[in-house]
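Just curious. Protein, please.
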Amino acid sequence: MKISQFIWERLRGPFVSGSGHVEYPETFHEELNDQCGRIILFAALIFTFAWLPYIPIDRQLYPGEPLIVALRVGLSLVGFAVLLLPGYRRFNRHSLTFLVIVSAYIEAATGVITGLTKADPAYMGGYLFVLTLMALVPIPRRAAWSILAASLLLFFTVGLASGMQFDTLRLRYSFNDLLATVLIVALFVTCWTGCASAAGKSRERSDSRSRLSGRARSSPRSSSRPSPTS
């Protein structure tokens, strides 16, 4: 398969079925998977290359922390794997799982990197930006909360182990920004997933009633047919 054809199939796959007709998800989980499938290609492309320009800067700012560079490269590897795997039939129905994995990696890795730098303001700004992404990705509420909590746990654990102290006005300011960001992201995640879940379940009940109504209308017709005579 040519590269251009492969990219085209990846782009149109989430929107059009193999027969050329648009597929509508029947359950809330399938709807989340469908939404993830629409953005996973672009997200994987971004994650594959997003952190590479920072590696030379990391080597100059923190030459004694090789784990920072390793985590940067790791995101590229994860993004590249997610970019390729959905192209195989065995994995093309797991877009939600792939997006959860990528989101968990970037949140956890950013927390560790920021902790290793002892909450350096330059890295702290990037960490706050990455945290806000959790309010945008269409993943289940429990997964989003778990990823957010794990990222914060890694940040404080690694940071305190590295000697991080919020003993200056600048670091206290960054700490306040972190608290505000976490609260806003948690609020958005709760509201978005709650509204989406309610809408999805309401549509599921409506579809179920429609199917039952259709069966009820077809049942009298079948019973009113005259029986064959001998």
